[in-house]
Amino acid sequence: MIVLSESTEQIEPSASASENKLMTEAAQLLGCKVYYIPRDFERCGTAENALWHIPNYPKATLGIWIGYIPEFERYQTIYYAALAKGIKKTTQYSFRTPNSIRV
Hints:
alpha/beta; four-stranded parallel β-sheet; 3 helices; 4 strands
């Protein structure tokens, strides 16, 4: 299983940040491959650039997102960028694809 985590030391301390850090550490202890992703595209510009360090997986691999509840557009772009790398992604809260989310 692949984990996309927004848990970094650069985030202001909060209950959510602590929870994200603990979930990321638990995933690592369970043997999941963890890749860190930025909370926004300010420095990298696009979802594809945010995932540049993640290799392409030839076989579909399940992935989860540990992080903050994103805006729909961010979720959608990360979802499709991960999917293009062979990661069938879900969030920590649901198993929905962007097309099944009702706003």
